[in-house]
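Section 5.1 Outputs to date
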Amino acid sequence: MIHNLIGTAGRLVRAQGLAVLALVILISGGTAAYAATVAKNSVVSRSIKDGQVKTVDLKNGGVTGLKLGLNAVTGDHVADDTIKGADVDESSLGTVPNASSLGGQPASSYLRGSAYTKESPVQAGTDKGDGTFVIRFQCDPGDLILSGGPANVNANSDLVESFPAPGILNGWQVRIHKNAAADNFSLVVLCLNTA
């Protein structure tokens, strides 16, 4: 009987010893042993304590635009001057400072209208007596001259000058030197119809 008691006591001590050993293993490092046995991709959201997934735990490029929640990225999380083009809601920008003027001048100070060209008849021009010939031509009455220049000029002739015609508010003048060759030419003006 004593022998049975000792045998029973020995079994109890061994069972308790194994239980204590299992408890110690579990507390001291059993979680690592458990984690090593968890199948790949088997950790789900409810298995993770809130706030415990850190940047270092995420794969580079692992979080894409489709995985971001609505309004998850705010202005504080976007680098300055990085959002461009179609990514900008222009209606959210408000009025640009001084958008009602350019260079401090109101829009009414700038020309409005449509541009057109007009060409003089091809002609010899007015002989200035020094081998040069002049043509003067102007825009329609009330329109503004923007620019002008010669056209249909012989390759042997030289352009001497091209500028707004003196004394003609909306005209242009060109002078060419024909170098003793016959040369009929014309003058083209660029005008602004302000009507």
